[in-house]
Amino acid sequence: MSGSRPIGLLAQEDGAGVDFARLRAARRERVRAEMERQGVDVLVLGRRGNAKYLGGHRWLWRAVLTPFGPLCIFVRESGEIHLLGCTWDDGIPAEIPTQRLSALTWNPRNTVAAIRRVEELAVASRIGVDGMSPFLADVLAELAPRAEIVDGERLMRSVRAVKLPAEIDCIRGALAIAEGSLAAVAAQLRPGVTEIELGARTAQEMSRFGTTLPALEASFCATPRAGEGPVPPLRQRPSARALAAGDLVACSAGVLFAGYEGVATRSWPCLGPTGSPSPAQRSLHARWRAAQQEVVARCRPGAVAVELRKAWLDTGEPLPPVLLAHGVGMGVEPPIVAGAAGPEPVDDEPLREGMVVAVQGYVWERGVGGYLGGETLLVTADAPLPLSRVSDAPLGDA
Amino acid sequence: MSGPPSHALDLARMRRERLAKLQRAMEGDDLDALLLLTSGSVLYATGAWMPAADNGRATHQRVCALVLRGEASPHLFTPYAEGAPAELPAENLHPPLWPETDAGVEEMARRVAERLGSGARRIAVDDWTTPMWLRLRKLLAPVEIGNAGALVTSCRLHKTPDEQECMRRSWWMNEAASQAAEQALRPGIRMTDLTGVYLRRLLELGASCNFLDPVFQIMPERIADGPWSTNGDVPFALVTADHVARHGDVVWTDTVSGYEGYASDVGRTWVVGRPSSALRDLYLRWQEITDAVIDAIRPGATGAELVSVATRTNGGKRPWLDHYFLGHTLGLEGGEPQRFGSDAGPEVDEQLVLEPGMAVVIEPVTWKDGHGGWRCEELLFVTDTGHEKVSRYPNEPFE
User: Fold this and answer.
1) pTM, whole model, 2 decimals?
2) A364 and A223 Cβ atoms separated by less than 8 Å
3) Which of A64, A158, A208, A217 is the best residue to mutate to test the B interface, defined by the most B CB atoms within 10 Å of its own CB?
4) Residue A288 in contact with residue A370, Cβ under 8 Å?
5) B106 is in which domain, residue-wise?
6) Residue B38 contacts A, CB cutoff 8 Å
7) Which of A274, A346, A359, B207 is 20 to 30 A from B105 via CA?
8) Tens of pLDDT along A292-348?
9) Final residue of a domain: which of B134, B156, B178?
10) What part of B 280-319 touches A (C-beta under 8 Å)?
């Protein structure tokens, strides 16, 4: 299934050893420099990825989108980081002193008190926020009466887009765990096993690597071999359906490592007694590989979403039902290159050297099924460098 | 443990009844529309499936809802068309919104405005991205934009029979998965391996997703042996790490998973080997407190009463973690709680009046520094005359 190259943590042997204290300092310096450029004095952040980028701390992961609330306040001039909702120093980097932690609270007065401790707010002329609530707006109006509120998410997005070498190592680590987990379960695709069972096994495989945070819940869905329209819908929600010989199964799994996302997306055949895929399945994979390659080849500095979409469409394949491409970092990051399912309008953020992007495609053939595949790449001055290591076997070359 | 719950469940009826509640509340607040962005509110208004994902991913693959006053179906904006409930009319299913940029918010405003029509005056939203905050009011003027949070929470607080059945199933799956993890607990196993066992069993049983990184924490016997904290209380719940269990360890758990979006919130205390006699005493006191609080759960009781019963039974000392609470209500995602015994203060506890249909989780804790402590969570539905206890996890090895 995975050929002879090691994937999973074994593949990391030569690249291990991220100096996280140095990485955190480098990230904060980048944010500080961009704040200075934009004249932003204080950032009040509630988005997990942004808070993680600055704080580098661990918290209890939840799979919910809740209303905005501040988690991390960063002061440009002093470089001080205040973390809210942190009752312990467990998982808090040593360079953040305990007096800058405020406890979890259910009392708005305590939240105000925690924000009030950031004395620089009183003299701030520009505050960046990455989300807002009427409550926070009132608090800032009182504590920072002179301040103009600006888009701190856009600021953070521009800083986070280009990756430091150590960030790329973290993404490689996350990819290794995701790919190692997915490959282990893909080896168990057999007639009779259910889609739900495969997802359940993947969660356990990930935990064996010592990580428990998914970037997204694993998905295994047999692709349709017949259906309405030119391309029948691709399911992403696993069912209790048992796989049958001949199914092509779209698989994806993703984890977070030190906050960075690694997602593996491939399709594997459920093989019958003959034990080998059909020529039609191999040729479908080749079609995906060819179309994918057209988009990958255009992932160079300066490329914008419409060009990547055109590259895919020029192959004659309809847009995939997933994002055609997106930035990768602490989760999904812009640029967002929509597939058939949106969103519109198209993101116009160009690719830059040092960005990491995921490119995904889907092709379908009546009577054969669908092939969903994706790869994560580093944008360089020359051809993009693949970070994914999943083998194309058994449908293509190992 | 007994088998899965098997009350009747009609998901289409559940969605219809939830939407009708939202419509009545909009009528009462004189709102023309709700524009919903948070996952719990969107689930409530539409019943749409969306994959469980990290925030950093879900933000860019948002599922949103627009509920228009007087209309029989909500509008759903989603990248996951397969997640739309069967009864949603095709014309109410739309491509996703992406209010992450100025252009994305202009598109959001255009699509909302064309459905609102010219007579609309007031709408409410449940969250703001920064570009929304900076631009949406101007783009939709003269329509006023208020806050949807309190309205949606008030609807979500009382569960219909179908919602209660989803919660029973969710809790049962979570308990069964927890039991699988407890059976795997032995000297030498890593806590993250318990996570693996738990998640595998949970998903095999058909839970629709996992909401929280499951907590399996080896507890110190003395608070001072744990990390520094702001309040000096028992350090729980910490992020699960690859710590290895040893004979005699006590593990506290906290796991939140979903069935059709409805959360379970199972918390247990497990012992590797035989419990000490001190731990047995702590368990017995926990049971006494828990029984007393459960006895007090009935329509009309307030959060303050439950706080008072628990404290009295514990000899005047509050038997729960200072940074949490004695209990909370529960529903979709675990994200709709009204808490009692929290730092929000006694006025908030007074204001929570139990009514039939509410779901209440209680989580008393007993602790004796130097000997550790006992913590478990129990789920109760408030009924017309009292309560129904939903949680059924046995307190091994004492039962």
Assistant:
1) 0.96
2) yes
3) A64
4) no
5) 11-156
6) yes
7) A359
8) 999 999 999 999 999 999 999 999 999 999 999 999 999 999 999 999 998 887 778
9) B156
10) none
